[in-house]
Design a protein that fits this description.
The chain has helices at about 20-40, 45-75, 80-100, 105-130, 140-155, 165-200; strands at about 15, 135. The chain is globular, with a radius of gyration of 18 Å. The chain contains 6 helices and 2 strands. The relative contact order is 0.20.
Length: about 200
């Protein structure tokens, strides 16, 4: 999924920026999403408290992995993507805390929906944003797909409030599993590209 740079002339600008440890940060995000998704699959009766705790932990862990990814990318302070992604990360964490505090099916659904949708918008912006004089991020195509998954999950969650905790976790978990598969493939691709670049 991640973009692989093609051979270029000696003086050409690289096609994509791929920091050596980026694949590890991306892998953590994949593992968090997959773990949450698998929990939702096998949790038959989560209840209100189970829903709130699960969503809170997922949003907080997602915020931590997103922060790690932004730090690993080492975007310059003048790059708008840094501000947008870190802002979305902060709102993810706030959504997780709020879901745990209010302990309500309705509030948890809306907080999670808003947090995931905002992250989706931030990733879509980062995928489309092309700052002058900088290289294209190796995560551009992954951000594009992940943004669709995040926005889709965020928009769907409020419509499943009547389905209760199990239905809400099913929607959130389904989006998480697809997102986890995407980022797992991205991490493996980044690691392969990094190893190939070292061998050249």
């Amino acid at each position: 999924m991640s973009e692989t740079a093609f051979p270029q002339p000696i003086n050409a600008r690289p096609v994509a920026s791929n920091p050596p440890k980026l694949w590890k940060a991306v892998l953590w995000r994949a593992l968090v999403a997959l773990a949450f998704g698998l929990v939702t699959v096998f949790w038959a009766e989560p209840g209100t408290m189970g829903l709130c705790v699960a969503l809170a932990l997922y949003l907080l862990a997602l915020a931590a992995t997103e922060y790690l990814t932004v730090r690993t990318l080492a975007l310059p302070t003048s790059d708008n993507r840094r501000v947008v992604l870190l802002g979305a990360t902060a709102l993810l964490a706030m959504g997780g805390v709020a879901a745990a505090i209010f302990a309500s099916v309705v509030y948890a659904a809306w907080f999670a929906a808003a947090a995931l949708a905002i992250l989706g918008v931030a990733e879509l912006y980062s995928a489309l944003y092309k700052p002058a004089g900088s290289v294209k991020s190796a995560l551009r195509s992954d951000w594009m797909i992940s943004s669709i998954l995040g926005l889709g999950t965020g928009l769907l969650l409020p419509f499943f409030i009547q389905a209760g905790p199990h239905g809400l976790l099913g929607v959130a978990g389904g989006g998480a599993l697809m997102s986890g598969a995407l980022w797992l493939l991205s991490a493996l691709t980044l690691r392969h590209d990094g190893s190939k670049a070292k061998g050249q």
